[in-house]
């Protein structure tokens, strides 16, 4: 009697093939669906290809790009790996015609925006260091065109102002000094820079003309005239404050019948106090609140009081210097700020050195 649980091997093998075939068919449908969802369509050689961002061809050609279509050759050959980070190339946007642009190593720079950003710094440096603002901006633009990057205050100082200051100092005893003694004559500087074999004068003058950079030289002239008047007043106020400091020191010594204040402290107060008073007075005069003659006595009194307050803070470390490259260097070098004791100590040591050299 045949066992009712017996199944022939033939039928078992047939069932296995059926399940395998169904599994492969289901997997194929799933893969095609995923590829279609991703925007990839499979086209065999000779088939039409009219749509889709990307397509795959099962021929033996190498990887190529045609517009927005990328052909991926069969896997396993050299250069057949698909780059998942590929982005179809598009034409570069054309520069705006509304403003001039120049190039640097990091791309396109809007010249007008760059000038607007650095013009005030250029004017300040012209007043303090004697480098015409117009020529500084022109040199900066030429340096950018040559591939240098000038994107911040440090870049502008290191790549434009400092080299020009060094040139001015070196030419003081040469035939070139007549070109670089002006603080607001960019044309004369352009000629001198050509004589020094640094820049072509026509190129500099073209930048000066194209961007109307002479307007910043005019600002320098106006500011220098104001600075001269301010400096005269500040010198007067500083003299009055210095006299007040000396009088207070003598008064304290007489009162106690001995000099309780160390000589070094008296000297520090006189030397540093004069500079602090001068800087305080400059700031006050520039505020526009001391325009009349009767305001002068009030200016002296207020400056004297603020200077005395500032000089009370003396804790500092001789020999140490404020880092000039620090992002807040200008604030840290402000000797009128009571907190900046190190800046005042640095000033004191510098003044002492000057006095020793004169004696």
Q: What number of domains?
A: 3
Ranges where pLDDT stays below 50 over 5 or more residues in a row are 1-7, 44-99
Q: Number of helix segments?
A: 11
Radius of gyration: 39 Å
Estimate percent helicity: 55-70%
What is the CA–CA distance across the termini? 136 Å
Strand order in the largest sheet: 1-2-4-3
Task: Output the helix-strand order.
Answer: HEEEEEEHHHHHHHHHH
The count of DSSP E runs of length 2 or more, i.e. the number of strands, is 6
* Strand percent estimate: 5-15%
Mean pLDDT, to the nearest integer, reads 76
Shape: extended
What can you see in these coordinates?
With 359 residues, this protein is of the alpha/beta class. It folds into three domains: 39-74, no CATH class; 101-212, Lysozyme, CATH 1.10.530; 228-358, no CATH class. The protein is 57% helix and 6% strand. It is built from eleven helices and six strands. Strands 1-2-4-3 form a four-stranded mixed sheet. Strands 5-6 form a two-stranded antiparallel sheet. It starts with 8 loop residues before the first helix and ends with a helix. The relative contact order is 0.05. Residues 1-7 and 44-99 have low confidence and may be disordered.
